[in-house]
Amino acid sequence: MTHMTFAAIDEDQPGRKWQARWRHSWPAYRAWLSTRSLKEPSPAVCLAALQQHMPQLVQTYDKLLTLSEGGELEACFLSHWQPPEYLAGCSIAAKASHGLVRLVRNYDLSPELNEGLLLKSHWRKPVMGMVEFLWGLSDGINGDGLCAAIAYGGRRDTGVGFGITLIVRYILEMCATVEEALKVLERIPSHMAYNVTLADRSGKTASVELQPGGGLRHAWPSIATNHQNGPEQVVGHRFTETHDRRAYLQSLMADNPRPDEMAQAFLRPPLFQRRYEEGFGTLFTAEYDPCKPGVTLHWPTGNLAQSFARFREGHDRVTLQSLPACGT
User: Fold this and answer.
1) Taking the CB of residue 115, how many other CB atoms lie within 10 A of it?
2) What is the pLDDT, as a whole number, of residue 29?
3) What global pTM score does this model have?
4) What is the CATH number of the domain that holds 210?
5) Is residue 312 in a domain?
6) Which letter does DSSP use for residue 323 in this model?
7) Tens digit of pLDDT for each residue in 177-208?
8) Which of 38, 119, 192, 287 pairs with 297 at a CA distance of 20 to 30 A?
């Protein structure tokens, strides 16, 4: 049995609350970085990359760097430019029908590696999402109703680019529609292969497969797991059951479910994973509603609903039940 604490924080501009989370999370990230063979560029190169690709975030980056009270390592880390490789499993589906729109995702990872933070902010737009790498987002939604979620694309090769979680942050800070988000994904290079699923208030949905160093392929339907449709070799496909999960999602979408009923399927196998001791379990199911706009975090034991209109700060302790050991 595994326990996790999920925090919800509301802070319009980076300040003492973000700084407190930095002080809480940075030691673990620094230890993680120490286990990697780092070839990061200089802080000047990292800043130049931000200025070239995401100039609208530079002011926020400067604020965060000041709050971190950091040096060169912190500056490079916060830029998300050329980070070490990182992997996670996920299942995602977006659908519009019956006058409803939903994006639903399972986030699968070791409980020890997730920040467990839902942050509501207003840096350029109202944005709410699950934080990764202190200011990036693994999934989220903005006040316009645009939502996005990522899934690792199943390849270990890397290219010159940004960590995907900052790209998601940028999309939600700058875009209002799926079409606008797709233009950003075409323009800004990701350092690894990642799948991104999008939905907006109008009912437009999309999934794309980002290539290391830039470029993307469109995928259909608007679902994603942890491989891509090209000829590239998939890492750990048997362990993550990525093909089985995608086949299940394809079958689910073919049955034309109501969007507001999809989350229940994500709380059951094969989408819901319970191998926490092996470092691969579903930490949360996020159901984004672009029309509300808001998110409900689901677990088998309960849920937490949040919206821009009604957001509750606090901490929720969640019990994650592992699969029983063989022979029990």
Assistant:
1) 20
2) 94
3) 0.96
4) 3.60.60.10
5) yes
6) P
7) 999 999 999 999 999 999 999 999 999 999 99
8) 192
